[in-house]
Amino acid sequence: LTQQSHNRNSAVLPPPASVDALVNSVCQTACSGAYRHPQLHGHVAYGTAGFRMRADAGQMDYIMFRMGVLAALRSRSLHGQAVGVMVTASHNPEHDNGVKLVEPNGDMLPVEWEPIASGLVNALDTELRNHLHVLLSTLHDSEFITTAQFVARRGRVLVGHDSRKSSPSLAEAVAAGVRACNPAGTDEADDEQLAVAEQLGVLTTPQLHYIVACTNNPAYGRPSLSGYAEKLAGAFVRLAERRSLKGGGGAGPRSVHIDAANGVGAGALAQLAPLLGEHLRLVVHNSGDGELNYRCGADFVKVQMRFPEGRGLQFEPGQRWASFDGDADRIIYFYCDSEGQFQMLDGDKQAALLAAYLIGRIRAAGLNLNTGLVQTAYANAESTRYLAEQLGVAVACVPTGVKHLHKRAKDFDIGVYFEANGHGTVLFSDRARSAILAVAADSEGEAGEKVEAARELRLVMDLINETVGDAVSVLLAVEHALAEAGWGAAEWNACYTDLPSRQLKVSVANRSAVTTTDAERRCVLPEGLQPVIDDLVAATQRGRAFVRPSGTEDVVRVYAEGATRELADQLALQVAEAVHRLAAGVGPLPSIE
């Protein structure tokens, strides 16, 4: 990003005759552009995953256009700070696609803006002009946007997309939405432009979050794909060199096999691998020669609890494997044990490993920091017990959705959050960062254990992508923690034993008829369903079960645990039958392959 383009994009705009004139101008140009992107769907809702649906036959084009408009407005409401738009459907099948917005600090779109996004997308074409006028006037009059913010600086939107066939054209529709906010006849060099779109091309979702954060805060890193790779690899290599000097981490080079789900993660790994040198060998499979997410990837491995499929895949005992999802924001580790059986190391196990490592380093550095771990109801009961009883970590449970985990993790000095599906990261508060840097800068001397531990933590902070769950960043953090412990996959897995679990989906007429409480662990509606679940759980040895409505489709998700595989499967099927019977199930009952 050149200084010239930065200066142009952040330039103060000449004030319009009035805010009303600006509102009218935006409404007129945006609606003119919207005629080329007609609405094709009924009601859709923006959630944790943004908007996501089937994308063939141009079904998402109008959504992308309107999200471009919204992104431009969001950037302008934040004094022209850059925001991001990512076109991806993550772990969904290749025929799907989606879109989500990224905040200037790399966070997700604030919850209070989600209904604004939904309202804009759901407005009928014939009502769009009036809807935009009301929206812009409301934003101007509300706490979201002041007159100074509204007229001060040009909006800046960074657009990225994954490798799906539908993604390039949908990313262009986003850019068209951004441009549609500009007065007719203006171009990129025109000072009267209200917003500009910058196409970043194919990249992972975490890379876009990182670049947006760096664009607004250069202290976080260099805002480019090479800057991303160099920051992560540089921290990992320096940690490995420190470990080598102190004679730890076992002998010989380490390697890990990666199932990239035929998604964008393969490209990120290709750029990273040469920078790691002899410290870690990345063996990448499913790098794009097959269908995206089809019988491979993190979601397939987690839900099906089996090895991924792909050309030439062979799983040898002793090998460490990891599966990414399609946009590389989830990671699931697994391995083949000595008896040839599949063993999974999911988000719970990753959280336990990283929490144990961090607590050890924090204590070694003599730091008094409040460390906590955030989970959802999907976390295995044994993981929660291990964290609380063995590690002494404060454990919080929140509803499903990264936005809930990320928010709760900010309550700790060091907050580790992971969903069982492998989406997670570590957050360091300003207090924690200052405390670590202060000890690391101490001139006590090279032999000082506290100083050395703090310097290690300083590098770990660079290794972690705090903006969002990042499969590449977590891969490197896990590999570092394993090397420090001198562990392979089997030793890691032995820290605790998961209870067998099973997940099922029940199709229902209306998912909104099912509501929950207590971080989704208890069902409120329909009446009578929770007592049935309680009775089934009580009759199952070490049983636990809950149900929750999907956020994207008319299904109710069932989760069950039991002392044995048979008991977990039986409990899941029994709860699924109760959901089907009491929550207006449609179609056949779910079964287990």
TrEMBL record:
Keywords: Isomerase, Magnesium, Metal-binding, Phosphoprotein
Protein family (similarity comment): Belongs to the phosphohexose mutase family.
Involved pathway(s): Nucleotide-sugar biosynthesis; UDP-N-acetyl-alpha-D-glucosamine biosynthesis; N-acetyl-alpha-D-glucosamine 1-phosphate from alpha-D-glucosamine 6-phosphate (route I): step 2/2
Binding site for substrate: 419-421, 548-552, 557
Alpha-D-phosphohexomutase alpha/beta/alpha domain: residues covered: 81-112
Reactions the enzyme catalyzes: N-acetyl-alpha-D-glucosamine 1-phosphate = N-acetyl-D-glucosamine 6-phosphate
Pfam family, one: PGM_PMM_I
Alpha-D-phosphohexomutase C-terminal domain boundaries: 536-578
Organism in which the protein naturally occurs: Macrostomum lignano
One example GO MF annotation: phosphoacetylglucosamine mutase activity
Lineage: superkingdom: Eukaryota
Cofactor, how bound (note): Binds 1 Mg(2+) ion per subunit.
Descriptive protein name: phosphoacetylglucosamine mutase
First-level EC class: isomerase
GO biological process terms on file: carbohydrate metabolic process; UDP-N-acetylglucosamine biosynthetic process
Keyword DNA repair (UniProt): no
Co-factor(s): Mg(2+)
Family annotation (SUPFAM superfamilies): Phosphoglucomutase, C-terminal domain, Phosphoglucomutase, first 3 domains
Catalytic-site annotation from UniProt: 90
Positions with a binding annotation for Mg(2+): 90, 325, 327, 329
Phosphoacetylglucosamine mutase AMG1 domain mapped to chain residues: 346-487
Documented EC number(s): 5.4.2.3
